[in-house]
Specification:
Strand order of the largest sheet: 2-1-7-8-9-6-3
Radius of gyration: 23 Å
Helix content: under 10%
Number of helices: 1
Distance between the termini: 52 Å
Structural class: mainly beta
Strand content: 35-45%
Shape: elongated
Number of strands: 9
Length: about 150
């Protein structure tokens, strides 16, 4: 009995950066990919509300000095990522334009485990570059993860 095994082969030039695929819905409603295989930066931002809690034990009328009097309420964490393309051809400007106009985006880190992460484009504008003006064309885009770090599903 012969057994067939299918292997996925992804070839990228040797790079110290982890390649990331961003998939988006283009103007025809089809899924399209753009690869970001240069430097990427992850960041996190947190918003909270604070309140002052009573730490007095009413049964003994004493309090613990190691208890938190200032407490956190409604802690929400949001992660974001900044991605850079490789040097690309001017003909890719239409793909960048469609990425900017897409309402649905996903990121896939191309490692052994391909985890798909929904994204929101944070970059509101970009200059479409021309090879006449720029010798090498590269784009930097900022994305927010489309979910809270601490999930508050509603």
């Amino acid at each position: 009995e012969t057994k067939t095994t299918v292997l996925k082969v992804k070839t990228f030039p040797c790079s110290k950066y982890e390649p990331i695929r961003v998939t988006f819905v283009n103007k025809y409603g089809a899924l399209q990919d753009i690869y970001f295989n240069r430097r990427s930066n992850d960041s996190i931002s947190v918003t909270t509300e604070d309140y002052k809690a009573s730490i007095v034990d009413l049964s003994t009328l004493s309090y613990d000095t190691t208890s938190h009097q200032q407490r956190t309420l409604n802690l929400v964490g949001k992660e974001s990522i900044t991605l850079n393309t490789d040097y690309i051809d001017e003909s890719c400007n239409e793909h960048i334009r469609e990425l900017m106009l897409s309402e649905q985006l996903w990121m896939t880190k191309l490692t052994d485990e391909e985890t798909i992460i929904p994204l929101r484009l944070r970059s509101q504008s970009t200059q479409l570059k021309k090879s006449v003006n720029e010798k090498l064309i590269q784009y930097t885009m900022q994305f927010d993860f489309a979910f809270d770090k601490i999930n508050n599903i509603r």
